[in-house]
Amino acid sequence: MGHGDGSDIFSSIMYLLSGTVLIRVVNYHYIKLAPSVVTALSAVVWGGALMLLQTVNSDIAASLEALRDILRNFPELVMDYMLGFLLFAAAIEVDLGRLGRVRSTVISLALGGTFLSTLFVGTLTWLLLRRIVPLPFEICLLFGTVVSPTDPIAVTSVLNEKPDLISESTRYFVWCESLFNDAVGVVLYYGMLNFTVNGDAPVSDRLWAVVQVFLRECVVGVVLGLVMGYIAYLLIQAVSEPVLEITITVVLVGILEVMCVELGASIPLATICAGLLIGNYGLEFGFSPEGAEGFHQIWRFIDETLNSVLFLMIGLMSIYWAPDILGWGKYFVMMLAIIPISLFSRAMSITLSLSMLLWAEKLFGRKLRHPSVRYRAGTIGVLTWGGLRGGLTIALALGAIR
Hints:
With 402 residues, the protein is mostly helical. The protein has 16 helices and no strands. It has helices spanning 5-31, 35-53, 58-71, 74-91, 96-101, 103-129, 137-147, 152-161, 168-197, 203-237, 242-263, 267-286, 289-316, 328-364, 379-385, 391-401. The relative contact order is 0.16.
């Protein structure tokens, strides 16, 4: 039996897993930093070394090109496969009772905050690039949709590694906000991408196409997640075999990803809805005691393993770094300017979103927040610096380029 593409893919996955295990073991004994940071930095160093050595060794140049071939599938790998499992693993840990206490703030930040950040980033980037590399305004808005959603994978990873970093109430605040604005951001991205690629069509037709994308992504994604999650819940209730109960949840996420791709629905929304249902009702009323214990262990394994592979691939993306295309001067001006633009836009979108919520409370004469939810002096700062970007942003950017 000959070796084909399947064998190459399996070998690549095993090499990635081996690299993450080795890095985490070394970090555990000697470096003792956040595993995600060490993994990404190690991959950056590795990728940089390969780029330097490729000029003196043809075998290294061939290996580097093979690595690029693997990473070209990074957007599909993250968006269509890894993202659903990672978001489901995060959603099953969300308590609906506690989420209900912060729902008004989470909705305000996930909807208003993401939209405003996209607008700020797009406008400021358009103004910046007018004298460097002029781009149409809609392309800059598309860039805004890429960098505006925070990455719940990165945020959850850091919060799990540093449980004492912020208070428990603020921690839950940041966590839920990152989870839901990610789903909103991906839907906004696909809508803006559809608007941009149909540039020759009339504006009214392009806007209607965007509305259709939003409706299909959101409505179908939520309904699909709830329906399939409920079917999985009934199946779990019908058995008392721990391994089978856990298997049902893994298959649930996989089939949701397949169905969402086929129907053009939102994988983040579908898997988050299914995760909330299974994590709250399935664990309490469906799982056997042994199944519930194994459920958390298996999904923690899936979460940490995929996180490690994701951060390794993020670091390896450095092999695509080619500043000479635009010129080093223009490249560094853009790079140094985009960072403060992103931070400023994040801070302003949070400030305006929370201010609008407070204004709505005064307008309607009633509290829209739970009494335990208070905005302190450092809330905006925590949410701004907690808006980490990770593999999702890179996947969206590469997907847009394609």
